[in-house]
Automatic annotation (TrEMBL):
This is Dihydroorotase. Zn(2+) 1 binds at residues 58, 60, 152, 310. Zn(2+) 2 binds at residues 152, 179, 232. GO terms for molecular function: allantoinase activity; dihydroorotase activity; zinc ion binding.
Length: 435
């Protein structure tokens, strides 16, 4: 195994330093002169920012079942290109990841691909049907060691089932990640409910459909003393409820609520629906500029704990059609860090240490991952990303590693570029290219 000497990297955006990597671990932080013994490759990282390898709590890899949209191989390549060393693979595959057998299969495919670690998310209910609890314990005890459970794509709307799920996962320190969407309030919904949905003639999706479920679920988590995670927070009202809920959890102890925001909800607004271009169709929908501002503020002050991509690949035939018929979802892995720089770092809402917290440390903690989200320090596993924040690039959909092309950022100029990603000391990306 080649050892590496990374010269002049700015760890968390700080002063330039050298990093030694040997046998998959960080062996030195500071001036490493000379050799670490053995074959050493030197990487000039002058001006580059070093962050711990990014961890995504919310990725759709589509395998098994929709290998025409993405596979574990291509999705984890996209992850590595985005600076990720671990992703949580959502359960809405075909078959659904609701048994130990399926989660082990996804986990094994991730190991074989080797571009980034894959941690399968287990379904909460059998077949995402919302009627019977899946075998949560068997998935937790499997080789995949599942800790995050979600029916994402669908809401666990039955409060009795949600309560049982929250109770059940306490036994193995699991967490329920809720796709907060009251189904009766969003039947046939196509975009954010507001002035614009009326004008465009598209069925509206009220903010309250998200907020009502979040409010209900934090009360349930408090009642049973469990861990709740809220997926893709998109409205100002949700941020307010979470702020209140976190204060309550702090005071009471014994339960917790965490939340994620997606890059697209930090940047894009419902105005884009006026194009009727389904590239902007996503669940939850793009909201108003005021919502975007509130989500950014929530992420800045820690009310929203993490950025998660909700990378949702779809083949062109499911997106290149009229709005009503198109699938919900957009790509996210390869542009996430750039969008976070653009929306949070460049405007001064977050520094690079804050980015590392929200895109590595905290998501790893929520997923109970031992070897990810660790500090860049001696003895730690060498999972890290080298990022050039000083360049701009034009996003070209055709150049993405993902098998799908449904990025809303095609043609946009975005800041920053992932130069290298290391997974346990082995580069998965070097010079901006897959290894
Ligand atoms: N986000 C989306 O619009 N779509 C996701 C499902 C989901 O995250 O709810 C998908 O699986 O395509
Ligand atoms: Zn969802
Ligand atoms: Zn999702």
């Amino acid at each position: 195994m080649t050892d590496y000497l990374i010269r002049g990297a700015r760890v968390l955006g700080g002063a330039p330093t050298d990093l030694g990597i040997k046998d998959g671990r960080i062996v030195a932080v500071a001036e490493v002169s000379g050799s670490t013994g053995g074959a050493v490759e030197t990487i000039d990282a002058t001006g580059l920012i070093a962050l711990p390898g990014l961890v995504d709590l919310h990725t759709h890899l589509r395998e098994p079942g929709r290998e025409d949209a993405e596979t574990v191989e291509t999705g984890t390549q996209a992850a590595a290109m985005g600076g990720f060393t671990a992703v949580h693979a959502m359960a809405n595959t075909d078959p659904v990841a609701d048994t130990a057998g399926v989660v082990e299969q996804v986990w094994r495919l991730g190991r074989e691909a080797g571009h980034c670690d894959v941690f399968p998310v287990g379904a909460v209910t059998v077949g995402l049907g919302g009627e019977r609890l899946a075998e949560l314990g068997a998935m937790a005890d499997s080789a995949a060691r599942v800790r995050v459970f979600s029916d994402d794509g669908k809401c666990v709307s039955d409060p009795v089932l949600m309560r049982r799920a929250l109770e059940y996962v306490k036994a193995f320190d699991g967490v329920i990640a809720q796709h907060a969407q009251e189904p009766r309030l969003t039947e046939e919904a196509q975009m954010n409910e507001g002035v614009l949905s009326g004008r465009l003639g598209l069925r509206g999706w009220p903010a309250v459909a998200e907020e009502a479920i979040i409010a209900r679920d934090v009360l349930l988590a408090a009642h049973v003393g469990s861990r709740l995670h809220v997926c893709h927070v998109s409205t100002a009202g949700s941020v307010e409820i979470l702020r209140w809920a976190k204060a309550l959890a702090e005071k009471q102890g014994g339960w917790s609520v965490t939340a994620e925001a997606c890059p697209h909800h930090l940047l894009l607004t419902d105005e884009l629906a006026a194009t009727y271009d389904p590239i902007y169709k996503v669940n939850p929908p793009l909201r108003t500029a005021a919502d975007v501002e509130a989500v950014r503020a929530g992420l800045a002050d820690g009310t929203i704990d993490v950025v998660a991509t909700d990378h949702a690949p779809h083949p062109h035939e499911d997106k290149d059609c009229e709005w009503q018929a198109a699938a919900f979802g957009m790509l996210g892995l390869e542009t996430a860090l750039s969008i976070v720089q653009h929306t949070m770092v460049d405007p001064g809402l977050l520094d690079w240490a804050g980015v590392a917290e929200r895109m590595s440390t905290v998501p790893a903690r929520i997923g109970r991952l031992a070897d990810h989200g660790r500090p860049i320090a001696e003895g730690e596993p060498a999972n890290l990303v080298l990022y050039d924040a000083g360049v701009t690039r034009t996003v070209e959909a055709s150049e993405l590693a993902s098998l799908s092309r449904n990025t809303p950022y095609a043609g946009m100029e975005l800041p920053g570029r992932v130069v290298a990603t290391f997974l346990r000391g082995r580069p998965t990306v070097l010079d901006g290219k897959l290894c």
